[in-house]
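Working notes for the structural subgroup meeting. M.R. asked for a predicted model of this chain before we commit to crystallization trials. I am recording the input and output together here so anyone reviewing the notebook later can reproduce the run.

Input as submitted:
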Amino acid sequence: MTQPIAFYYGAGELERLSQFDKVVLQADFYPRHELDLLGERGVQTLGYLSLSEDVGPPAPWHRPERNPDWGGAFVHVDDPRWVAHVVDQATSAIAAGFDGLFLDTLNLEQTYPEDLPHLLTLIAAIREEARPAYLLANRGFGLLPKLADLVDGVLFESFSARWVDTESYAPWPDDVLEAHASVAERLLELDVDLYALDYADSDELTDFAQRRAREFGMLCFVSDRVLSRI
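Returned structure, recorded in token form:
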């Protein structure tokens, strides 16, 4: 019996990935014949795509600030050159054999809220130009409810459990869990698939995350901080 979804940022592992209905992968890590093999086995492949951060070389769309955790440069989402760059990445991923796309770095409501409307415009352009079979958005709660009209599913990353630093994991404090529950109740009102991605290093924390996700209608995958575990 297959499992709903996996997030894996390594390469290979086709046999293990074949055990899932959907898999989110780094777009550059899988050649066409491997994507085709997964497709033949009934796996829907989603390529990773960042919409508000850029890990590439210096570019005119970069802001001076960078993500302190991962190092990518924040971008001006409405810069036409960034829009063209992202749409080209999306189109290339679909042409390379991916079925759909996983849209990351959508949480701008606390940092650059003025870019939220531009994010919706960018997602609409990706849908129209790349024509993915499936779009999965990571969080993006500041874009609700309009986001639900543009994507097929929403992921609640770190819904119940989180990585504290590079080597330790823990459940969220009770006040954060309550806040997340309120958002989850909003998501349940939308016509989208719901998923949770949590981080854990013990069976106890994994069971807690999976059990809590089920309570809110989410299909849950649990991994480590860098998504190297299937």
